């Protein structure tokens, strides 16, 4: 038994698990200045393998923090999907090509990069903005919630006992095939947390009292068990192997994403990766689960996986000299029956939904869980938002998890099936249906079809969607190229909607040469600047007027016919040290080098009359209305934001940028 | 006196001076694996101020090493130049707007970023690729050349004595105004190298024997004096101040590059920079040189500079709370009478040309000097190229320096003059002429108008320019978007022409669906693969076939109608470990997300018949001919390249990427 310790401390947020979901949560806390600890039972960061597919939406999110460029540079971009199916003679042929990302959806396209690099970018970003680090080799062993104070925002109702493991214990057992593998965390492995607890020695314990706990501790989530949650659903008998190799092959599409169905030798998915690597997902038909429902992991080796791939790919040949990583998994879809307890302990990522990795969704949906949750906890902890917004996490993300599970259920069964020999072969899978599901899945897989429902943070009822037909309520704000009025530089507009915790009002000022339109904008500014306005109410007296809610202006008049100082001061606030703010007013006009963004057309906004749009801190659209409808905007913010006088200082030491 | 030391060592290349020119040279050596030392008399890297303007061509060069993205992200992009001139009543008005970079010239546009960041990116890149570091606080004190062995490639004919300074000595004296300034290295300061030598104490000396020395030690170049070189030209009486501030102003174009001529209160140039900074270049009419030709530096303060700017900018107001840096300079243009000695000691950058900084050329032309020189020294040191190519450095770069000086002479006098009151005011400067010179200067200032003449490394005489009307002999290879045949990813084609020391053959394969065209390509490959071909001759036996000369193919057939394996093996060479090379064959076709590059049209190449292009390792065009004209290509390479058996191993420890 470990030595008990009396060491006790308090923290606003405790994050359990430092995978992509946990690091996304920590990144929010770093940006919002919320005191936070991150623990992970593993002793080291991962270096190869694991998840790798990145949705457009994930890249947009990385960009909102400022590191999408690193991903975009290092990743392999996937442009085209090639489908290979048996021809009349049973030989595989390329039957179709479709774009991997539906054109026009996003300024980013799907790409792949090893999870360890993504984690590196999160860690670098946290370091730049905060003192939050990941404490590795630390295991949570007990969690209790003091229900008597769960409504007290100053209280620390959650008590978690932590054990610091010795180095030896924190190292996951590999299967010893000479290459790194992921079998130790495959869903075919039993959970090893219990073992770690039983065998702990020479370690120490401490007690942490937290306001919020976020469990990002994977499919075997310890946190989930503490709050009595369950994953619901059953595994299938389909077992797939995953192999990362530098392939030596005469298959012509090895650098394309391929879905290959052989006549009688199973299916294969090809994912081209960075550094000449290719990931093969291949069905291991010869390995079956035993009576307990699990297959014998020791039978799965790189040789077994490549042999299966070779059969599917015949008559083409494939082999390798270098193998980077491999794993296997058993297809199954499960979703958690609860995502939180008392809105104090939350689950995210694999802790509340698991599915097959082939569609490249897992890491994305997991990160997007905590991208949804992080700002809510952060702004409540900072005293900026009403704690009732926390309930929207489960409401919003459980729907996404369910949609994911439904998609994966259909997709993975179609993928694992044998192609139909003809239209009356009912045992086989129709390749036309497969293609339809694949194409539909591609939109889903972009992460851009997520639509949050009406709630206290999505003001659908007082909105007028017709004023901005392509800025959909509850969906993420799309991006079009606009120009900065002050320096004529073109920008994807979304790039200015940083994940820094601020809500945003986008003032589509319309044709600003028009006198009436200028008067409407002036009236809007007067309303917001008036004594007692919601903007003044939610902004602390000693803070700049854009510190809680930021206003961006996008007008449609020709850039050269409007001057920067034609706009009211509120739209480009003055600072004693820095002068006027030159990064708030944008225009929909032709650029010198990158064409015309046609933003008003893209957004579906009348270029004469414009409109008002409110965005949440996560870029989701909260309100669409007339420029004059400041009353609805006021009602929206009054419903969820506390007075500026309630704000807590940022407690954590903030680093200089 | 310093203690003499017997310490002696040998090195292939000694670089004196670690500013942008020196670091560019060192970066080539890092990439080419040439043993190199870099010394700088200053004890620390610079942190603010200095040069900041970056040409399109400099960005392309950074991109060829792989770090343009860091510059592009951090820099301020300049899009538009606004000209302000007195109106009929003598009040300044915006009279014109022109694009800062001529549209279509490059995929990059001019931008500004503090020199210290550029140096950081060079240093990071050197660290990634080599063990070369900068030794600071090291002063060269004696240089001699043993003329008896200057033709012996194995000899180290240059002896340089170095003195390692104490920290105190290596710190440049600032003027003590409370902000960092650049007056200590302004051209209004006397050289302080002599002082450093005389006052040295507690230091040590060593002797270095080098094959090549590159003097990048600035306008007061010590190296230049050792080889008996002189800068020729005279200063003017015009004195300009430079001030980096965060401005507080009601001037509407403060985030544009502005050229402002007031009626009677001098001229001002505005350069908007990163981090809300703005650089002001302003004429200091009230400060005049004394009888010695130099002005009193102690009279120049930020207050003097801002006061001058305020007068020019009236009736607009400008002030600041934060000043980052300032300096002053006296306009003058001088060019060195020699650029090298025995092709063993070379001068580059300010050591062989100085001019006024306002046009943002200095850092660029200096870096481009050593970008031209570095690969030549590197490939000669490696035994890959004949040493006669070294003579092309002075031939090519002296012309560029002279063109720069001529441009700056005209531009700075026009800028410093008073605007003409009317057409008969001959004392004044015509604002129309100013605009014309400015616009012409803008093309010059892109760095893309450089054209090297026919020589052993530019095979103009056997070329047929008509086959590629926009791939100009002696100019840099332009960039158009192309797609990778293997994965459909769009790329700016130039991005593949990395600065790694390889020459390149670009095979414009034309319409590859056409049988005759395929036969021409096959014949081309047979010629190059034949026993005794120039390609086999220059490639060491144990190296891959693309290690000295790399072949890229760009065809014009529809991507989907041609297969990767339709192309001969030579065009996508096989590697035992890595399989086929998927990054050699490109196609001019529509992309899914970024339009059609129309590369054949852009390059001016017949999409049916194609052509052959040879590029030097610095992306300059060496030859244009028919696909069948391998004889001319052979002659070109035979003229400058040694047999592969002569290659020296990379001596320096190369780091793993």
Automatic annotation (TrEMBL), chains A, B:
SUPFAM superfamilies: FAD-linked reductases, C-terminal domain (SSF54373), FAD/NAD(P)-binding domain (SSF51905), Thioredoxin-like (SSF52833). The keyword Oxidoreductase applies. Residues 11-407 form the FAD-binding domain. GO terms for molecular function: FAD binding; oxidoreductase activity, acting on paired donors, with incorporation or reduction of molecular oxygen, NAD(P)H as one donor, and incorporation of one atom of oxygen. Pfam families: FAD_binding_3, Phe_hydrox_dim. The keyword Flavoprotein applies. Keywords: FAD, Flavoprotein, Oxidoreductase. InterPro entries: FAD-bd, FAD/NAD-bd_sf, Phe_hydrox_C_dim_dom, PHOX_C_sf, RIFMO-like, Thioredoxin-like_sf. Residues 450-643 form the Phenol hydroxylase-like C-terminal dimerisation domain. Gene3D superfamilies: 3.40.30.20, D-Amino Acid Oxidase, subunit A, domain 2, FAD/NAD(P)-binding domain. Belongs to the PheA/TfdB FAD monooxygenase family. This is Phenol hydroxylase. It comes from Tothia fuscella.
